[in-house]
Each structure stands twice: as structure tokens, then as C-alpha cells.
Write a structure and sequence with these properties.
Jelly Rolls, homotetramer, 366 residues, alpha+beta, 19% helix, 7 helices, 8-stranded mixed beta sheet
Chain lengths: 366, 366, 366, 366
């Protein structure tokens, strides 16, 4: 007994000594470090449109945009299970942004990459590197890392959209750079035609000769219209379906066939009435936004019902399966697979038991 | 003098001796080998539709297709300046093919890559690897190296199209492999839906998840419709123009952004009325087909007038410039730049004098 | 005044309400998020060999390895400025490991990638995927992500080496997977010749035909001997020097010319007596280990003197410049540039003022 | 009968008519074009050193180099089966070159790529882009497309080496460009240290930071010494052997791991006494030079004995197998696989019958 005590005392004193020299014995922490599977802090969560929209409207009453207001009127989705500064998952953050007619969200740029998926409204434009991009419900827009971007609104009624950024990833690495376009902050004037790159590169596999400016690590095609995506889904429905996610199409960089940005991939998924995918999990995180219809997902054994406007997150290595109810459902998905693939950390696993379906153990109470 | 004679005699006898051992002194042939610029045998040439079409019709009367006829009813464009076996240029051959209703051009495959550009007719289909591709005027189709392909025609009236193949290149390397689909030769049955890959991959930058079968060195998108190409040209006209070739769009592999096949690149060019490009030359060869309108080209100082249906070849390192007359002109172009780029032999030069325009020294008499 | 109070009250109540729905207003946190330059928590630090080595020896007395001991006898370098779980920087962790003759560190594998740089001793081997790698002072070894690795020691005297891993990066993303080779833990037997891949792929630009097993995202060459590296530095000294880091050579994957692993790059740097590089900074983090000689570095204006065996960290976006004293100094460097390049976050900046040298404002007191 | 005659007459007259319009019916030539396997004109051949060397010496008596002599004293190996202008195969030409002390082969550059393998002598240097490369027996040197290169000889005795170029390929495409360094022709002065790139990039997987000048499509390492290659073969002998070609090592570009030039690949092959490889064939052509030892090869069923200094060609799609006699044999090989791979025309086939060995039907009488 005395020996044990002595040893404990000796170790304690040793630990104290080495820590004073900024050393930490690995064997003290290795049980935490060497886990068979990831110890994931972030849990699945859902943000319901019926909760978010009225609060966004309220935010519109409380906070202006631009001159004497906020740079951006944004409510970020802070996952309650995430103890870090901010983040819907460990790598991504989703948010809802609203602009009113006449407002201007001043132009800035940052190393964090962003994408937008339009929820409602008309008449606003995002100006990316001098090119005004139209914004209509269901449109998908890019503002890649270090591109100038501001928002203006010359239409009627509020304009709302979903933002997804890689802020938790970039800031988790302490690599956030940020620059305002001008002092005082204002919106960069449009010096290119509206939807210019869409006009140039939007015809798919018919491309004008590449320009020097296009050797970018992201898609020079900054916007993808809803109609084209929805029609493509309808056309492919049924015979190209994945075992997991219904009919899927990925937004790609027309000059490479690769993902739209080096950190974030984006895709659309069509689930037909009653179509029920198998469960799987992967090391990448996906943020889903319900662009159309109703359905439910089983995330790590718990059921999450969803409908138009809802956003939910499937964190890394989380079992998930989706089903639509009543009619077609369309999910927009943003995931971090490009960054994981780049460092060879992308893994995927099919749910092995029970014909590929999880046993449901509860329902999300949110 | 005797010394000179002696030396000549000695050299002659030496040459005879080394040649008997399969050796050839380089200094005897080096003047031929080491030319400052390529000594190009192949000259520009034009095949006029008014000459070709009636002869194709005549061929239809003289030669059947399939059962007891030819495998293909094709008139190849043999450049008169080319002393080799066959070829419109040193690397490419263009041809016109015709199929009558009820005829079947049996399925085969070969290492030579082919493309088609539809001239007139309706109702025929090319079946590539079991997928029937519709053929309408202005459509562009691929039958890449070693893909099964046959043609059927269930419509009315003759169906005519332009073929471009890399036969002179592949056979120049003695690398032609060929295989018939069945014995006796017949057409591979369609086991996939009509225009299936167009449906899947034709939406441009919205792609279904890549399948294993798609890791091909050529575009899995086997057909590109005229309407989309023409509309894209119209949309881009004016502000994206090249200094040489008007408004240009390249047909690309949607999964890579690269050329449709590893040996041949294809593109469309719009020249607006009176638009006159500068002259340039490059080590790649281009075969031009007039898909719309009228115009003329100055090729190595000589003027070639052209109109709908004509085909002309601009061989490697040949100065060329184009102009439209009366209205819009659209040129379809097939070139061998991918193979040259792959071996680092692609060079380009702008015409340096006279504001970029050649002095015209004559007119093509054909 | 009442109005202000009312507004504050209204906002406070609004914030409370939205937070109850897992929403956080961006404008509340944006000042933290949108910083002109990275807000870097991790500061430069140095671990002196005169502090580390005796404590490592002490650890040897207190803690066994393998059977009834720790899996690894490792002291990790925990940067005092880092508030996270562990880490020498935000992405990398360095450590010192020691094995005594007769000890066996059992085989395991994990998604975290590791490298070793041998400090002292002889006779130990690291067995990577069944291949025993010799370990001599100055040797550089790889145990890439998910490769089996264990250590044995059949020589005399303690064996000490530096470990560098991407644990903070991988665990920061919650992507740590770990597996033991057997139960109970033991060392994987050697089923390949000693230094087999070094024998196969170590001759540089003379490679045997690639095997299927070599299409790995990391170098199949698992070890690089000190002598070759040191000789190469001596040979290149003087005329290939970088303006910053003396004569530099990068360890590369012979099959790609790229970095040894997708997350970590490694290199050697020779500073000749009195040679003083200019200051620069980059978004990548570097861990330096002093393999030979003495010198000092100015890190963010503060002077750090170093000598053989010391390890110091230059975190991301930290100004740094190095100089040798007395004689040649050789620094081994491990950095995270591959992961940053992959996601387009790599930036570099030369120190603009004062002829490229920082003003020294203090000395590291450690 | 009359009908047949009529038809023949009609066809003949039709053919005449279409040919007058530069058209050729495909069905007339398709039997030639559509061959199941390549119709290969070029046959295997061997050039014996006992034949070549004395004639080279004779050439030295008859023809000077440089001032008032030939630019190059070269005897090219003209395959007797090849009806084209020049060429050992359809794509490659090998030759022997000799320089005497004091001679200077003036500097030029051309689009044709060249390599050298040193046969005998010492003291000569090839100056490539201003860098003098030492030449010792067994060394392998590059003079890639469009690099300046000249030869000087400051040693004693004749210097002889093997040249391999892609002249038949490049000139077959009419893409030969050529430029003399100066007028009158002379050798470019050395403005870089001897074997500079070997010193910089010769240490294999330890590379200095890449320079802009190194983004070349060919290896910036212009020379590979015999000793390193021979030692590598000895080290790998036995356990890495290919089923066909003994122990093989490929010369690679250290910055990519790929072939040394975009058109030509080079390798060394060790055959141990009595070691007999299986037969195979591929669409690429290989020129073999016997760098050491004696042996024989069965090429398309015929036996070719060879010894030091002999050169033989295995054309595309030609069955071949090799064996050494008496002792180790080392073959240097240059092949055109990179150009074929680039255009997806590379195929390989193992000999299917007779345990992988051809039946020998004769012996080469040369």
C-alpha cells in the first residue's frame, strides 16, 4: 500500500515537473486520443423554418443593414452540442440571412468560403467580384474564399436565404483573414453584366476558351439556377438513384468536373414519395436544407421530421437515412468532403444490419 | 580534281558499305531532317457540298449498306496533296457518310476515334455501346476509340453526316486494331434508353455521382445537340470573341472540363456578318465544316470561299483567317490539338505583319 | 435614454429567445469572426533538450513500455499558449519518445499521420506494415495514416527520437480512428526484409515499375537516411539558398515528387556560420528540430537561442528568421503546408521593413 | 455477265469521277484500313557492334565534325523493313555518334527529343542549355525537345555513344522545327557548373524547392550516371523481377515520378545468368542496347543473339522474350510508351501458349 502511494506520489510529482517544462506524458491522455471511432461532440440537430423565419423577421425590425446597422443581418445556427465559439458542425456553419428592399450589405472578402441557397423573395443581387448575381428561390450561389461580395436589394419584400460557410474549419485552424472593400464600408459597384459567368459557363459541356482568370481553385461559374437543377432531378429520377440519398446531382466546376470549392461540395437530392434510402455514415459532415416537400430522417437512431425551409445537420460519422412523405421532396446538401478527400480522411460505411435500416429509438423533440 | 574524285568515290563506296549494314549517314539526310520550319506536304483543300452531295446520292444508288453491301457508305476526303494511303491531313480524315431508311451499318469497334456532325436527314440513330443516339442536323456525336458503334435508320429520306477520324494518325503509327461485333456482321441491339448519357450528363455542371464506368479517357457524354450549341454561340456573341476565330465554344468532357477525346478536340465558331478574324497558325490541324451561312477563309495567302455543307482543312502550321459574308456563319471544327499538347508539340503564332492579315495572292480554283 | 434602455432590453430579450432556438446573431460575434489577420492563440515556444532528455530518462524509470507498461513512452510538447486538449500548434504535435533495449511498443494504426526523426541511440526498429525500418541518428521515418506500426529495440542503451503527428488537426475535426494490431497488444512480426522500401525506392530517379500497392496518397519510401540528406545539403550549400531558410531540401514521394504525406511536409535546412536569413511568415505551421549545431531564431520579434536536440515551433502567420552561430547548423522541419495547399489556404509574406529583419524586442526566457 | 460488266464499268467510272473531286470510297480501301491487328511494316532488326564500330571509325576518317565538317558524325540505324525516309521503328530512330578530341558538334535545338547512352570513351561533354554534362560509359543523358545542345571533346581517344530520337514520330506529323544556336554554327558556351542539375536533383527523394524554370514537361535532371543505375539493378535483382524483362528500373523525372520526356521513356534491365523471361507484346516500340553481357532474344519467333554494343529494335505489337547467357546482362531500353499512353493507345498482351514462350522458327542471319 505504501508502495502504491509512493508510486502515485512519485508520478504526481513527475507530472508536475514535466508540465512545468511544457511536456505532457502521452500515457496520461492516450485513452482520450486513441479512440476506436471518433469521439464526436457535435450531435444532429434541426432548425425549423417555423422557428427561424419569424425570428428573422423580428431581427429585421431590430437591426438594420449597412449604414448604421450590421454588416450582415444573419442568424447563425449554433449547434447546442457544440462547445466551440460557433458552428453548426465542427467544420461548417449554416445561417439564415435577410435583406430588405433598399438595404445594402457592404462588400468584403475573407478566407472563409461561403455559399447561398435562396429561400424566398426576389429582386436582390449578390455582387461577386463586380458581377451581380440574380437571386431567385432555389438558386445556388458561390462566394468562394477571398472573393469580394456584397448584397443589394432593389425588389419588393424581404429576401431570405441560407448561408453555409466553412468558418469553423478555417477559424479552427486560426486562418481567418478578412478585408473590407472600402472605408467607409459600401457595396462594390457592378462592373460586369448581370449573371455574366452563368451566361458564359452555364451551358455545361460547351465552354468558351479558358481565360487566365479562370485558373481558380473554385468554380468560375458562381450561380446555378433552381429550374435547371429541379429539371435535372426530375429527368434522372428513378434509374440513377443512390442506395442512400435518392436521385442525386452534384454542382460541379465546369472546367474540372470537381466540386465547386476546395472546402465545400454542394448537391441536390430528390426523394420520391415513400422512397426510403438505406442508412450509411461517412467522415464528412452534411448540412441539409429542405428545398421542397416533406419527409423525415433517422439520424443516429432518432427520427427528425422535416418540411420546407428546415435545416438539419448530419455530423461526421453519424448514421443517417432519409424518406419523403406525401410527394416529392428535394434536399439541398452542403458537405465538407472535398477538404477530407484532400487529406485522405474520407471514409464511408453502409449500415450493416437490419436490411440497412436503423432501429428508431426516439424522436427529435425540437 | 583527282583528289575530289577520289573522295567522292571513297564516300560513295563508304555509303554503299554502311547501307549494307542498315546504316545511313546522318549528314547525307540532315538537310531534309533539320528544317527550320516543318516541311509540310499536306496543303489546304476544300470539298464543296455541291460536289459531294450528288456523288453521295450516286453512291447510294451504286452501293448498299450492310447485308451484301458495304459496311459503311462513306466517301472519304482524300487531300490531293497527301501522298500517303489516305487522309485529309497528316493526322485526321474527314468523310461524308449516308444511310438510307431501312439500312443498317453493322456494329464494329476500332482503336481509331471518330466523331460525327449531322448534315441532313432525320430518323437515324448511332448505337454506341448499346445506347442509341438520336441524330438531327447540327448534332455532334462521339464514337471514341474502341467503343462499339453501328448505325440504323428508321426515318424517311437519306441521312447524311460528316465523319472525322484520327485514322491517319493511328495508322501512321501502325496501331490500328479492329473488331466486328458479331459474325455475320450486324448491329448491336440497343440495351439502354435513347440518348441516355445525354439525359444523365447533358445538364452541364449538374452531374450525377460518377460511376466506375465513367473513368474513361473520353467524354461519357456521347452527344451534344445543335440547339444548345447554337444558342450558346448566340448568347456569347460579341464579348468573348477570340482575335482569330470569332465566338468560340469547345465541346468538353463534363467530368474533366477537357477535350471530348484524347486525340481530337471539337468546337463551334460563330462569325458575325463581316466579322474578320486575324490570321494565325498553329502546329495542330483543323478540319472545318460549314454548319451555317457563307464566308471565306484566307489559307496560306489563297482565298477559299465557302458555304453550307462545305468542308475545308487547315493543315498544321498554315496561316489562316476567316470572314463571314451576308449573315452569321457557323463553323464546326475538329482538331488534333489534344494529341499534340500531350507530347508538348503544340505551338501557336500570330501573323505579325499587315495588321494581322495576310496578303491574298490567289483564289482556290476548286 | 429610456429609448436606449428599451432597445438594449429588447435586444437582450431577442437574443435570449433566438438562442433558445439554437440561433446566434452574427452581428454579436462578427467582430471576433471577421479579423483582418488570424487571431492566433498559439505562440512560439521552445523545448530545450537539456530539459527534455533528463525527464525522458526519468520517465524511463517510472514507466515501462508494452507488457504492463504504457503503449508508448512519450512526452508530448504541449504548447503553454494552447488551451486545447493537446498540441504544439493548432495542427501538429511534437513529442519525444524513448525505448529501452528489450522493450516493445505494440503495433497499432490510426488516422493520425506520424513521422519520426531519430535523436540518439542505435538498434531499435520501427515495423511499418510488416517492414522493419532501421533507426539511426538523423534518420527520418514515416508512419502514414492508417499504416500499422510498432517499435522494437534489440540494441544497447536508450533510443530517443522526435515524433511529429497531425493529431490536433485530425482530432480537431473529430476524425480520429484507432485500431490495435492484436489483443492482447503485441508487435506485428516482420514479414518483409529490413529497410525493404528504402532498398527498392531509395535510389531516387531510378524506380522499379510501380506496383498496385503503391498508389498510396503517401510516400511508399518510409525512411530516408541522415547521411544522404546531410551530404545533399553540403553539396547544395551556397548556390541554391532560399532568402529565408538557408539551403533547403524537401523529402519527397519518389512516385510523385510531392510531399511525403497528405498532411505533413518534411525538410532539412542548412545554415552556414553566420548565415542569416530574411524574415517571412506563412499560414503554415513549422516545427523545427535542431539536428546539428547552434543558432538562434527571431520569432515575432523575440529571440530564441537553440542548440542540438532543441525543438521549437513557429505557428501560422508568425514572423520568423534564423541564424547559425559558430559553425554549420542543420534544422529538421515538419510543416502542415500540404493540408493548407489542398484547401487553398496557403499564403506567404516577406517581412517588408528594415532590410527584411525584425527588430528584436526580447529574449525567450525558457 | 453483261450486268456484272456494266456494274464494274459503272463503278469504275464512278470512282474516277469522285477521285476527280478528291473523294475516295471507303469501301475500296476499308480492307486495308480495318485490320484486326496492326499491319506492321517495321520488323525486328539488330545492329551489331562489330559491324557498326569499325564503320564509325571509318566515318571518322572520312568526315570531320564542326568547322568544314558535318554538324554531327552520326550513323543512323535505318531499319531495312522501313520504307519511310528514316527510322529504326515507326516512331523512333537510334544511331551511333562519334566525336574525336578537339572536335565540336555545334549547338542547335529541335522539336525532336533525344537521349544518349554512352558506349565508350571519356572526356567529352554535352552542353545542354548552357550546362556541361559529363559523359562516361553507361551514362544516360537527355536533350529534350527544344533544348539547346552541342558536344565538345577535350579528352583522349574517340568518344562513342548511342542516340535515340523521336524523329520518325515528329517528322511523321510534319512537326519538325530546327534552330541553330548561332551563325556561323558554334557550341554554346558553358555558363553553368558541370553536371549542375545532377548535383541539384540527383539525390532522389531529397529535392531543393522547385524553381519556376522546372515546370518543364521533361525531367530537369539531364543526366543519370551508370554506377547508380548498375548498383540499383544489383540491389533489386531477384525479388522485384518482372515476368518479362528481368529486374527493371525506370529513369524518372524526380519532380513528377513520370517518364523523362513526354515522348520517350528509358529504363535499365538486368538479366541474370540463364534468367529467361516470358514473351509478351505491346503497342509501344522498344529499342534495346546491350550495355553489358551476352544473351539472346526471341522476336516474333526468330532468335537474335546479342552482346555488348549491339542495338536491336522490338517494334510495336511484336512478341519478344529475352535471356542472358554466361553471366549478367544489362539492357538499356528506350521506348515510346509515354506518347501512346497520352493518347490512350497503349495495350499489352502476355504470350498465351506454351508456358509463355514462343516456338523458335529461325535465327536472325545478320
Amino acid at each position: 500500500m505504501a508502495v502504491v502511494k509512493d508510486r502515485e506520489e512519485t508520478l504526481r510529482s513527475f507530472y508536475e515537473d514535466v508540465r512545468s517544462k511544457a511536456l505532457e506524458p502521452l500515457w496520461v491522455i492516450s485513452a482520450n486520443v486513441n479512440t476506436v471511432e471518433p469521439t464526436r461532440e457535435v450531435q444532429p440537430w434541426i432548425w425549423r423554418w417555423r422557428d427561424v423565419r419569424p425570428r428573422m423577421i423580428q431581427a429585421g425590425e431590430l437591426m438594420g443593414v449597412g449604414h448604421e446597422g450590421a454588416d450582415r443581418r444573419v442568424l447563425t445556427m449554433k449547434n447546442p452540442s457544440n462547445t466551440r465559439e460557433l458552428g453548426t458542425s465542427r467544420t461548417l456553419v449554416s445561417a439564415v440571412q435577410m435583406v430588405y428592399p433598399g438595404e445594402e450589405a457592404p462588400t468584403h472578402r475573407h478566407t472563409m468560403a461561403a455559399l447561398r441557397f435562396i429561400i424566398e423573395g426576389e429582386g436582390a443581387k449578390t455582387i461577386v467580384n463586380g458581377e451581380p448575381l440574380t437571386m431567385e428561390p432555389g438558386d445556388f450561389l458561390l462566394t468562394p474564399s477571398w472573393t469580394w461580395h456584397g448584397h443589394i436589394h432593389q425588389g419588393a419584400g424581404p429576401m431570405l436565404w441560407l448561408d453555409v460557410l466553412d468558418v469553423p474549419f478555417v477559424r479552427g485552424l486560426d486562418l481567418g483573414f478578412y478585408e473590407e472593400y472600402s472605408d467607409p464600408p459600401r457595396v462594390q459597384p457592378a462592373d460586369r453584366p448581370i449573371d455574366d459567368n452563368l451566361r458564359r459557363y452555364g451551358a455545361g459541356s460547351l465552354l468558351p476558351p479558358p481565360k487566365a482568370e479562370l485558373s481558380t481553385p473554385y468554380s468560375p461559374l458562381f450561380s446555378y439556377k433552381w429550374r435547371q437543377g429541379r429539371e435535372t432531378l426530375a429527368r434522372l429520377a428513378g434509374d440513377d438513384d443512390s442506395p442512400y440519398d435518392g436521385t442525386a446531382v452534384t454542382y460541379t466546376n465546369p472546367f474540372t468536373g470537381g466540386p465547386v470549392m476546395p472546402t465545400i461540395n454542394a448537391s441536390l437530392h430528390l426523394l420520391r414519395p415513400g422512397q426510403s434510402g438505406n442508412a450509411h455514415r461517412h467522415t464528412s459532415t452534411t448540412i441539409y436544407y429542405v428545398a421542397e416537400g416533406r419527409g423525415s430522417s433517422i439520424l443516429e437512431g432518432k427520427r427528425f421530421d422535416w418540411e420546407f425551409g428546415d435545416t438539419f445537420v448530419v455530423p461526421n460519422w453519424c448514421w443517417h437515412e432519409h424518406t419523403a412523405v406525401d410527394g416529392d421532396a428535394v434536399l439541398f446538401a452542403a458537405d465538407d468532403s472535398p477538404m477530407l478527400k484532400a487529406v485522405d480522411l474520407l471514409r464511408e460505411q453502409s449500415f450493416p444490419d437490419n436490411d440497412g435500416h436503423q432501429v428508431v429509438t426516439g424522436t427529435c423533440g425540437v
